[in-house]
Amino acid sequence: MDLQGTQLLGSGTSRAGTDTFTAIDPREAAPLEGSFHEAIPAEVDRAFALAAAAHPAFELAGREARARFLETIAERIEALGDGLLQRASAETGLPLPRLTGERGRTCGQLRMFAKVVREGAYLDVRIERADPDRQPLPKPDVRSMRHALGPVAVFGASNFPLAFSVAGGDTASALAAGCPVVVKAHPNHPGTSELVGRAIVAAVRDCGLPEGVFSLLQGRGHEVGLEMVRHPLCRAVGFTGSLAGGRALFDAAAARPVPIPVFAEMGSTNPMFLLPQKLAAEGAALAEGLAGSVTLGVGQFCTNPGLVFAVRDAGAETFVTKLAEHLGGAAEAPMLHAGIRSAYERRLDELAAVPGVEVRVRDGAVGPCGAKAALLVTDARNWTGQETLREEVFGPATVVVLCDDLAELAVVAGALPGQLTATVTGTEAEVAQVPGLLATLADRAGRVLFGGFPTGVDVSSAMVHGGPYPATTDSRSTSVGTAAIERFTRPVAWQSFPQALLPEDLRDAGPAGLWRRVDGEFGQA
Amino acid sequence: MDLQGTQLLGSGTSRAGTDTFTAIDPREAAPLEGSFHEAIPAEVDRAFALAAAAHPAFELAGREARARFLETIAERIEALGDGLLQRASAETGLPLPRLTGERGRTCGQLRMFAKVVREGAYLDVRIERADPDRQPLPKPDVRSMRHALGPVAVFGASNFPLAFSVAGGDTASALAAGCPVVVKAHPNHPGTSELVGRAIVAAVRDCGLPEGVFSLLQGRGHEVGLEMVRHPLCRAVGFTGSLAGGRALFDAAAARPVPIPVFAEMGSTNPMFLLPQKLAAEGAALAEGLAGSVTLGVGQFCTNPGLVFAVRDAGAETFVTKLAEHLGGAAEAPMLHAGIRSAYERRLDELAAVPGVEVRVRDGAVGPCGAKAALLVTDARNWTGQETLREEVFGPATVVVLCDDLAELAVVAGALPGQLTATVTGTEAEVAQVPGLLATLADRAGRVLFGGFPTGVDVSSAMVHGGPYPATTDSRSTSVGTAAIERFTRPVAWQSFPQALLPEDLRDAGPAGLWRRVDGEFGQA
Predict the structure, then answer these.
(1) Mean of all residue pLDDT scores within chain B
(2) Backbone phi, psi, residue A448, to 5°
(3) In this predicted model, what pLDDT tens digit does every residue of A152-180 receive, in sequence order?
């Protein structure tokens, strides 16, 4: 597919910068077709000026227009055909079946948000009608609903070149809310980003929306992204990536003259608690399942289970042996890029150097970005004393922490930092016997699982893909599922307005079927 | 009433610090009974350790227990009788009728949140049931609802010694959510704070809740507050006060190793747009009404209208003359304390020094903390060029900005920083004729009014008392009304749990009447 390597600024393109870069195929360590221009500050400025200008008209175009727009983006992405998947595979080393699924998820998310926007419940419409006779003071007519924040900066993620990149969950939810989006393409898949970006630009045109609704900027380093977050017209930030990257954006946003919210999802260690009875009964199956979860996508999922807590007994012994067999036998696979691979090896070196940590599985990989699974084992005392053991290893590795008993296991749970997920695997009876464990995990994680494995995040109304820092910079939201739209809105109240001047969604009649609260009571218009 | 001047740390008291201070009656500039000890870091630490320890049990006590607790606080406050109001009046200079109303509002808020908690809709319960046959992947059982964030630091406000102080809106909404609260008493009404604080401590005991649910700390300077915001166990902050104060807390919270949200409501200029036809028809009444709104509570409301935009014509001329008569004739009244009064005079000096600003009304006051109303007039060009004219004057003053025509008025609206409120006063027809004005104001304010005056914030499900920075540090929330509870919660998902291990509110049966979404559809359990 033809790649131009330009910024996409509304309906136009620009390559004002002179620095260029290329994408690398991690399987071959070979450069790919296409030369991409680094965005310069004037291009960042242009993107946000267009976005701010588009915001009122985009929101006023209404919910049906936005729903159609989201569906059109999905159609335009599907129309790119397999060329998109091939480019994405070349840029990330991810296999085509995985990317086929990811495209389905991406388009599914866009269509899900179309439904969310059509339904309108996310507006949280509240109508309090006037009561001039109320004592001690008359009651005014006050109506509120959620409005779009304005231009949003979205950062593409390396590990989801489609579902959390240019047209991914952050973009879909921001557009659904009525926010124009300026995307910073991830530098490791600039070609995939350009293809999807042009599909969105085409959808903007198809739907007759203002051009500033979408722009795409390319850049390798941190400068373009920081420029975006610091831009006065930027109103919010969506990010999926590393703790260092997310924290840098958060700090930049908080230091602005006008601070803005940052929704950074920065991954976590996703602890699993394997209780003795379950482990004794199903240890072999759990070892096989865990190995699959650890190595899924070469361990490059935010929900990769990097910590496993168990009570030291015969069942745990057998489980660790089986897990070592599975992980030791797992095939080498290429990571997303050379930097992620070297960071993975560096982190394994750090952990292996901690006294009391036993390296049970670790093999050198052969391919240029290749990685092999690793297994480390330690005990609860070592784990508690060493902060490095609590931090994420991004890649196909996990650390088993053996505890003396269930009481110690419950105590170490209380030492966990914020998590995207926490999993308890046990019989119903034994889980009930560890007092406070579930409350502790709910206090530290965005999602608590009973059995199963944390990888695989279902996209639904109830999903929470979030959690306390350092899992995210804003635990009050989710980046997956329908509730993600709420991040990009704020409530506005309208007081004593005549019906004709109110937004349609706030009028007495209201669009048929719209859920709302009238004088405190839920019902449909 | 007997005042002990101690910190209230759970069920205990402490006066470990040696620094003390007294309250001052602003009407007399005379010290009041009672010597209050500055909290020291060990006391801050103790308050948060108690709060963190209380959090799980407080949340697990359930919604009915929290509702009863809120009602008991209201009863305990009412049981303090008029002694509370007399102390509050002595400490703030606010008259007894105003404080009687404020006590009613305070207890009304507590009882409103009891209803909110009993109803449970704020939990936002979402249930997605498993579907093992779903393609391409089986659907897991996922259920989410909102959990309490944990210990919250609440700062008492000087201008609402009851309704936005120790048992005010922030405290009530945080307790309703299930968050223990550590209050920093405002140093200008420490006695009122102690009385209300002891009422809450008594309610904790009455209800058999863990003592750490509530603590109260006293302090004059910034140190105690910053210590609270920086405490590792603090999970969120509620504040009502100045821009400088709110920003300092926001910066401290953002700089923490684990950042926490700050809900600071920092006031605004609350612009009013008076359109020509309405002004011609009702200018005299509008002048009288505006003067009443500007001088209400000696201009010490967050929603005080400090900016008035009008088109320069005969109607505006008459209006300004009438407004000058009313403001010039308004009686002197004491401000909350000497610092606020001197800041008021200093801001008036700053504004009066701006070229092109005409001082139409300004008189010196006589009493120690006395203030008199002021009126300044300028034109749109001056206003646009001078940042100081866009910033709040805390006190009974307003600035009238005359525009050449409606087009210029719409343009200056676009130059406004974030606001709590914006008011458009015009006939329905003329408002409809200023294109984009309402969209511009909805983009800049938390509440847009059609006519009337912004002072007086009705406490209801639809109220939004918030808005873009610098009105608040988090525009995605409100500090007044039922939605204020959402600030202190975050969603948690539970995946594949057996019914018996789920929180009761997430079970299939659910508490009768609880609103929730099941497989995406709204309904009641």
Answers:
(1) 96
(2) -115, 130
(3) 999 999 999 999 999 999 999 999 999 99
Catalytic position from the list B265, B392, B403, B408: B265
What does each C-alpha distance from B258 to A422, B297, B388 come to in angstroms?
19, 39, 35
d(CA A486, CA A121): 11
Residue A448 three-state SS: strand
Are B487 and B176 within 8 A, CB to CB? Answer: no
Residues in chain A: 525
DSSP bridge partners of A397: A374
In terms of Cβ atoms closer than 10 Å to its own Cβ (0-12, 13-18, 19+), residue B42 is: exposed
Facing residue for A496 by CB, picked from B56, B445, B452:
B452
Residue B365 tokens, joined:
């006051």
User: Which tokens is B164 given?
Assistant: 């936005």
Q: Do B476 and A470 touch (CB under 8 A)?
A: no
Rounded to whole angstroms, the Cα distance separating B402 from B309 reads: 6
Side chain identity at residue B397, one-letter code:
A
In angstroms, rounded to a whole number, what is the distance separating the alpha carbons of residues B387 and B380?
12
Inter-chain residue contact B493 with A101, CB threshold 8 Å: no
Å between A36 CA and nearest CA of chain B: 35
Helix (H, G, I), strand (E, B) or coil at A489: strand
Structure-token match 């680094």, residue found: A38
Angle CA(A432)–CA(A437)–CA(A439) in degrees, nearest 5? 105
Q: How far is CA B454 from the centre of its chain?
A: 14
In the numeric block, the tokens 């997956």 are attached to A480
**pLDDT of A368:** 87
Q: How many CB pairs under 8 A join A and B?
A: 227
Instruction: With residue B67 as reference, give the H or E element that holds it.
Output: helix B63-79
Quickly state the pLDDT bin for B153 (edges 50, 70, 90).
Answer: very high
Q: What is the pLDDT of residues B329-349, one digit of tens each?
A: 999 999 999 999 999 999 999
CA distance B42 to B354: 48
What sign results for the dihedral spanned by CA atoms A142, A145, A151, A152?
A: positive
> Of the candidates A509, A488, A500, A519, which has an alpha carbon nearest to the alpha carbon of residue A122?
A488
Question: Of A128, A439, A494, which has the smallest distance from its Cβ to B60's Cβ?
Answer: A439
CB–CB of A466 and B491 under 8 A? yes
Tell me, yes or no, if A428 is annotated catalytic: no
Angle at B214 between CA B211 and CA B215, to 5 degrees: 105
The nearest CA of chain B is from the CA of A456 a distance in Å of 10
> Is A43 assigned a catalytic role?
no
With beta carbons less than 8 A apart as the criterion, state whether B501 and A425 touch.
Answer: no
- Tokens (6 digits) for A185: 């393409």
Residue B153 CB coordination number (10 Å): 31
HEC string of B457-516? CCCCCCCCCCCCCCCECCCCCCCCCHHHHHHHEEEEEEECCCHHHCCHHHCCCCCCCCEE
From CA B223, how far away is CA A431, in angstroms rounded? 44
Please list the residues that pair with A37 across neighbouring strands.
A20
Q: Is the pLDDT of residue A126 over 90?
A: yes
pTM value > 0.90: yes
Q: Specify the pLDDT at position B267.
A: 84
Q: Which residue of A has its CA nearest to B179?
A: A443
Q: Are residues A37 and A207 in contact, defined by beta-carbon separation less than 8 angstroms?
A: no
Nearest residue to B190 via CA among B165, B213, B153:
B165
Residue B319: the pLDDT is 98
Contacts of A469 in chain B (CB under 8 A): 258-259
> ipTM of this predicted complex?
0.97
A378 conformational bin, left if phi > 0, alpha if psi -120 to 50, beta if neither = beta
Quote the CA–CA distance of A479 and A297 in Å, as a whole number: 20
Residue with tokens 């240019």: A166
Q: Omega of the bond prior to A470 within 30 degrees of 0, cis?
A: yes
The answer to whether A452 touches A305, Cβ cutoff 8 Å, is no
